[in-house]
Amino acid sequence: MKKRVFSGIQPTGNLHIGAYLGALGNWVTRQYETDNVFCIVDLHAITVPQDPVLLKKRTRELTGIYLAAGLDAGYSIIFIQSHVAAHAELAWILNCFLPMGWMYRMTQFKEKSADLKEQVSVGLFDYPALMAADILLYRTDEVPVGEDQKQHVELTRDVAQRFNSIYGETFVLPEPVIPDVGARIMGLDDPTKKMSKSNEAPNHAVKLLDPPDVIRARIMRATTDSLKEIRFDEGRPGVYNLLTIYHAFTGESKNSIEAKFEGKGYGDLKKNLA
Question: pLDDT digits over 149-160, tens only?
Answer without folding.
Answer: 889 999 999 999
